[in-house]
Design a protein that fits this description.
The chain is α/β, with parallel strands linked by helices and 209 residues long. It has one domain. Strands 1-2-3-4-5 form a five-stranded mixed sheet, sandwiched between helices. A hairpin with a 4-residue loop joins strand 2 and strand 3.
Length: 209
């Protein structure tokens, strides 16, 4: 575990002290490995990772956007198998870079999901949006890959929830039912628990960030 300790020390302990180092970018793929287990331990429900950096069509969250079929990304899209809900997860590692406008994307998606009056489900809307983004993009194969990972059951989903993982210093600034600080993350996991002990030890440092 010496390598993992050194890696996390470079990312978190040293990284948070260095200008321009984007700790969140380094932490995000590491946390993705554990998220299914983390959420199970917290909520006793089954979760599945769908995609990190899931693309959201700008035209759906802002009809005035001049770039309707371009995308903005959310940190993780997961599936709550127990409740048949999509789960949108926002990760913040630096309280000084927090902008309420970033949370508006999630809130707008919540509004779209709850107030949907079309014949398509929320899941179908997201898939159709991906197809529109793909058509306008130079990177069609990457969007096609995401689409290929979504089976027919995705089109039946018509509910969503939002989970925020943020430093405790900004918990009160986040308007949401499920807001977690890094200290709130479980101390033990079923998978890769030894590695998680080291990783969590460094993640809790971000609560003071």
């Amino acid at each position: 575990m010496k390598f993992l300790n050194e890696l996390m020390n470079i990312i978190v302990t040293e990284g948070t002290q260095i200008p321009k180092v984007q700790v969140e970018r380094y932490i995000s793929p590491i946390l993705a490995v554990f998220l299914e287990d983390i959420l199970y331990q917290l909520y006793k429900k089954e979760y599945k990772m769908i995609s990190p950096e899931f693309p959201i069509r700008k035209g759906s969250i802002d009809y005035k956007s001049k770039r309707q079929n371009q995308s903005t990304n959310i940190d993780y899209l997961m599936y709550n198998k127990t409740d048949n809900k999509l789960v949108f997860i926002e990760l913040k590692t630096d309280s000084t870079s927090f902008k309420s406008s970033q949370l508006e994307i999630y809130q707008k998606l919540q509004e779209i999901c709850e107030n949907n009056t079309t014949q398509e489900t929320f899941g179908e809307l997201l898939i159709n949006d991906l197809k529109k983004i793909k058509k306008a993009s130079k990177f069609k194969s990457k969007y096609e890959y995401i689409i290929s990972q979504l089976d027919n059951s995705f089109t039946l989903i018509n509910k969503m929830e939002i989970i925020y993982i943020v430093p405790k210093n900004i918990i009160n600034k986040v308007d949401g039912k499920q807001v977690l600080s890094f200290y709130n993350l479980p101390k033990k996991l079923n998978h890769f628990n030894n590695e998680w002990q080291i990783i969590r030890k460094y993640l809790v440092q971000l609560d003071e960030n």
